[in-house]
Amino acid sequence: MDDEDPCFCELAPLYALGVLSEEEQAWVDQQAQTDPDLAEELAQYQHLISLLAYSLPPEPVPTSLRTRLLESLGQESPALQLAWRPYGIPGIEAAVLHLDRRGREVSCLARLQPGTIYPTHRHGGPEEILVLEGELVIEGCIYGQHAFIRSELGSVHQIESPRGCLCFIRTSLDNQFIEA
Question: Which superfamily is assigned to 59-177 in CATH?
Fold first, then answer.
C-alpha cells in the first residue's frame, strides 16, 4: 500500500472482487475483524458480487460444441477412460479430465445424485459448467440440459441438484468453502 491512509470504503468493493494485493487484503481483513459495522459492509459487497454472476440469462451453448462433447462422451475410445471417484461430498462423483496444477484449474465431469447439495463456496477463479443431463439450481435459477453457467472470480454460491445431473466443470483449485 502507498503512503496515504487507506479508505475501507474504497477497498471493500475491490476486496469483494478479489483484486487487492495481499497487503491490502490483510488490511481489510483486520479492519473487518475489529469493527462489526465494517464486517457487515464487506459482507454486503461480497453478497452483491456473488449475485452479479447470476443476474444475466444463461448463455446458449453452440450446437457444434454440444454435439462434439456429447459424441465424445459416448465413445469407448482409449482416449476417454473415465475414472469415477467419490468427490468428498455425499452424492457427488467426479472424473478428472485435465488437472493443471500450475494454472490452478481442473476440468472434470461430475455426477450429482438426486437431492445433492454442493456447499456454499467462493470461487478462486472463473468457473464454467455445462449441464449435460438433469438440472442444477444456483441462486434460485434452474439450469437444465445444455445450459452453460459461468461464475467469476470471487463469486459465491451453493449448488443444488434436486433431480440429479451430469455436468462438465472447469474450475479453480483455489475455491473455498464458506461455513454457514
Answer: Jelly Rolls (2.60.120.10)
Give residue limits of the domains in the chain: 8-52, 59-177
Phi, psi dihedral angles at 156 (to 5 degrees) = -130, 135
User: Over the stretch 3-56, which tens digit does the pLDDT of each residue have?
Assistant: 567 788 888 888 887 788 889 889 998 998 999 898 888 888 877 776 665 566
139, with CB counted inside 10 A (0-12, 13-18, 19+), is: middle
Residue 23 host element (H or E) = helix 22-34
* β partners of residue 110: 94, 167
Q: Which residues of 150-170 are buried (b: 16+ CB within 10 A; e: fewer)?
A: ebebbbbbebbbebbbbbbbb
Mutual orientation of helices 22-34 and 36-52 as an angle, nearest 10°?
A: 130
d(CA 104, CA 70): 26
Q: Which residue type sits at 92?
A: I
Rounded Cα gap, residues 20 and 7, in angstroms? 13
